[in-house]
Write a structure and sequence with these properties.
Blueprint lengths: L5 H20 L15 H63 L1
Length: 104
């Protein structure tokens, strides 16, 4: 039975297309154009488990990247502080040298 609301039907069709694309990227055969309705419950459950495992791995990878970025950011902040203090040291030495040169 077609939906009485075209926007709802279009949204459902887009969702199913995204699901089919997700399954295709996982290397699964998603030949049923209508979504889960033509798949057995067992096949749909297996696909859901594989999709969930892939999503879980992707989330874990993103969390690892985030942790690495936080560590890199902290390391860069420390390096920046070190370079700033080194710069201040150089600046004071240059100012001292210039002050001595002006005395001549």
């Amino acid at each position: 039975m077609p939906s009485s609301r075209p926007d709802k039907a279009a949204a459902k069709q887009r969702r199913r297309a995204r699901e089919a694309q997700d399954f295709t990227q996982l290397g699964l055969d998603f030949a049923a154009a209508g979504g889960y309705s033509e798949l057995s419950r067992k096949e749909a459950c297996a696909m859901d488990k594989e999709l969930f495992a892939a999503l879980e791995k992707k989330v874990d990878d993103l969390l690892d990247k985030y942790s690495n970025l936080k560590a890199d950011n902290a390391r860069l902040a420390e390096e920046n502080q070190r370079l700033q203090s080194e710069r201040e040291g150089f600046k004071s030495r240059v100012d001292a040298i210039l002050g001595k040169l002006e005395e001549f």
